[in-house]
Each structure stands twice: as C-alpha cells, then as structure tokens.
TrEMBL record:
InterPro entries: STM4014-like. This is STM4014 family protein. It comes from Deinococcus lacus.
C-alpha cells in the first residue's frame, strides 16, 4: 500500500489546488477534521458566512466553523465527482447529514433506532417552552443544529417558578463565547436571553433522558463503529449531564462497565451498529450511546462523522485507524 498523502484544508479553501491533483485512480479517500489551526478556522468561519475576527476564545456558539466545514464538505463532495475512480471511506452526503443534528435524528428515527423524542424546529425561547409544556416535558437538551464538541449545548430543566440551565456558553456584552468551564444560569431572564441568543443559529431540542451512573458518576459512551461492527469504546464520565472529555471530564473504565453489564452489553453494540447502518455510505462513525439508569435501555444521542479519534484504545491490537483500513481491505468500503 502506498503511503498516505495528506492534503491540508487551506490550499483547497484558497483555491490553490484541487482534489483532482491528489486523488489517483483506486485511491482510498478520507475526509477528516481540520484540527485546531487558526488560519483554517478563519477560512472556515468566512466560508460559513459569519463576520468577526477569530481569536483564541472565538465565538463558536454560532457554529461558524462547523457551518463552514459543512459548506466545504458539500463542495468537496461535488469535486469528487470529477476525480479518477476512488474508494471513499465515507460518502460526503452521509458526512453532511451527520453534521446536521435534526437531519441525523430524523434518519435514525426513520430507521427504527432508539433516540430521545425531539421538538419540532423552534425559533425562540418562548416557542421552545410552549412546545415542551404542550408535551408535558420539563427537561430538555438543547443543541445547535450544526454544533460540535458541546458548543452551544444547554441542559435545561424547570419546575414551577424555578429554572436551571447548564451550558458551555458564556454571554458577555451581547456576544456568545464558548467556555471549557460549564456555566449555570438560574433565573428565567438569563435562560430566556441565552436561548433567544442561540435560536437564530438553529436549535435542536430533545427530551432530556437521564443517564446511568457508574462509579458514582454520570456516564455515556462514544462507540466507534466500523464496517457495521461496534468496536472501540470510550466511557465518558462526568459529575453533571454534559460528558464531553475536553470539558474536564474523565474516561471511565470500559472493561469494568462491560463486565457490569454482562450480556446486556449487546444493547450498546446493537444501538451503535443500528445507527451506523442508517448511513450506508459511511464505513465508520463515532456513535454516542446513552444508557438509562439501571442499564435498562440504550439510545443513540449523536452520530459523529469525525468521532473516531480514540487515543490509546485498541481492539484486537488495532487502533481505530488501523481497524478502518483493515475494514477497507476486507471490502466494507461504501460505494462512491
């Protein structure tokens, strides 16, 4: 096998090269996260149609980078139609659907995958609360439709006159900033202001299903599913409802959890594999799986196109990237 050729995003975004110069007949083509590069983020924010100067503490609550990546992936997907015959690891159409949380939710539900119920699209805090109360809900997870890494996420609950929201979003001077310190809002005025500020960027609001506890902490799982098989699993362990590891949360003991569940571990694998099966053009994805208290039920929260970086996690001696290449060689690749 020839060594990998890595094409950075910037030359493509700037029009300095095109895919046809890089893709040879029979090549395996993989799209990946652009990583943490300021110039690339600036170019993607510009492509996403947002103004403002990116900075170390930029304003990603408007999902500028993800929207830019969404548009870039769509353009790159069209470009792959004009390059020599190749073998994609993920079809771009499926990547784009995974970027869109409402579209992913709809696809999973249509495929019979267990997912939390969701509200129809809402455009303000008032609409959100009205739709939730109509259903008798008092707990919601609110996400940006194109958000990533919990950017813009809000865990929201209320009872009577009391309300509480936990979020990655800090509001300063009318602007929204991402924070790696989870913030708590406890007045109706603050919560309405937060949701109204996020709403123009398109919201996806789901019923908040409680997560299981393990080792005295709240958990969920990121399961990298490859070629239709659930493989590399991370347990994300937190003291609150938002479990993303970059927010200071911890890896739990996946083997200990597997032993605790015993034969019930199959429901984790079934949930992850059913989710990937809903995307027949994707060789792999990182599937976020929720276990309810008492490990009674598994459900899928999200499907992540670029969610396969599991440092130090191996299955049968292979990391995620080795396992994906082996699956390609075994003929599991999606058709272009």
């Amino acid at each position: 096998m020839a060594p990998a050729r890595v094409l950075p995003y910037l030359p493509l975004l700037r029009g300095e090269t095109h895919l046809g110069e890089w893709v040879r007949e029979g090549s395996i083509v993989r799209f990946d996260s652009p990583g943490e590069d300021l110039e690339t983020e600036r170019a993607l924010i510009e492509l996403g149609g947002h103004s403002g100067q990116p900075r170390k503490r930029r304003n990603p609550a408007d999902a500028g980078v993800v929207r830019g990546l969404f548009r870039f992936a769509a353009a790159a997907g069209r470009a792959t139609d004009r390059v020599p015959p190749h073998r994609p690891m993920q079809r771009v159409g499926d990547i784009l659907t995974m970027f869109d949380k409402p579209a992913t939710h709809a696809r999973l539900r249509a495929a019979g995958v267990s997912v939390p119920d969701a509200l129809p699209e809402v455009h303000s805090a008032a609409e959100l609360f009205a739709a939730a109360r109509e259903r008798g809900w008092t707990r919601l997870f609110v996400k940006l439709a194109y958000g990533s890494s919990a950017s813009g996420a809000v865990a929201l609950q209320w009872q009577g006159e009391r309300v509480a929201a936990i979020s990655t979003v800090r509001m300063l001077g009318g602007r929204l900033y991402n924070s790696r310190q989870l913030l708590r809002y406890e007045t109706w005025g603050e919560v309405y202001a937060l949701l109204d500020a996020l709403a123009p960027h398109r919201l996806h609001a789901e019923q908040w299903w409680p997560k299981a506890s393990f080792g005295g902490r709240t958990i969920d799982l990121r399961v990298v599913t490859i070629g239709g098989r659930a493989q590399h699993t991370l347990v994300r362990s937190a003291r609150g409802p938002i479990t993303n590891l970059h927010l200071g949360n911890e890896r739990g003991d996946a083997e200990a959890l597997r032993r605790e569940l015993g034969p019930r571990w199959e429901m984790v694998e079934d949930a992850a594999e059913s989710a990937l099966n809903a995307f027949p053009g994707a060789l792999y994805a990182g599937v976020d799986v929720l276990l309810t208290p008492g490990f009674r039920r598994a459900a899928v929260l999200e499907v992540n196109a670029f969610g396969d970086y599991h440092r130090g996690v191996r299955v049968a001696g292979r990391d995620t990237y080795q396992a994906e290449l082996c699956a390609m060689m075994e003929g599991d690749a999606p058709r272009p």
